[in-house]
Design a protein that fits this description.
Shape: globular
Strand content: 15-25%
Oligomer: single chain
Number of strands: 7
Low-confidence stretches: none
CATH topology: Cytidine Deaminase, domain 2
Largest sheet: 7 strands, mixed
CATH superfamily: Cytidine Deaminase, domain 2
CATH architecture: 3-Layer(aba) Sandwich
Distance between the termini: 24 Å
Order of helices and strands: EHEEHEEHEE
Helix content: 10-25%
Length: 164
């Protein structure tokens, strides 16, 4: 048996002011989107903002549903909206943040497994990485490639007839 190690480079800062003006703007838009969340069941409002390669920004928030699997995550919402509004334009960076009781959480939140898969699919679709900014009020974590959050992702390669 062979052992394989997977490494992911993660950047962190306790000072959001160290980020570029573009990254700070994206976080502010994500936080505003979190304020639009429909999250009466969990009380956990999540917002996401996606900057596209042409400079456009699209935001999304989580929308819960009493039939819990029927809700949608902020990242999924933002990426789907971007795809619908700007077809064929690649996402280059997504910022994600959350609020509890109307206040931004202090530590960053990470995309769920489903959203990790969706981000990885966008990378595959456009053949370029999607940078992820996970922002809390006291700490920001950045990963340069979304697929690094899902090292053994399911992809189009898994659908190949050669695997049958």
């Amino acid at each position: 048996m062979k052992r394989i190690c997977v490494e992911t480079e993660i950047f962190e800062t306790g000072n959001p002011g160290e980020l570029s003006a573009d990254d700070q703007e994206l976080i502010k838009i994500a936080l505003k989107a979190a304020g639009s969340s429909w999250s009466p069941y969990s009380g956990f409002a999540v917002g996401a903002a996606v900057r596209l390669e042409d400079g456009n920004i699209v935001s999304g928030c989580n929308v819960e549903n009493a039939a819990f699997p029927s809700g949608i995550c902020a990242e999924h919402n933002a990426l789907s909206s971007a795809s619908a509004s700007f077809p064929g334009v690649a996402p280059v960076v997504i910022a994600v943040t959350a609020m509890k009781a109307g206040v931004q959480v202090s530590l960053p939140v990470s995309p769920c497994g489903k959203c990790r898969q969706i981000i990885a699919e966008e990378e595959s679709r456009y053949k370029r990485p999607v940078r992820i900014i996970m922002a809390g009020s006291s700490k920001v974590t950045i990963i340069e490639k979304g697929s690094d959050l899902l090292p053994l992702l399911f992809s189009h390669k898994d659908l190949s007839p050669d695997l049958r």
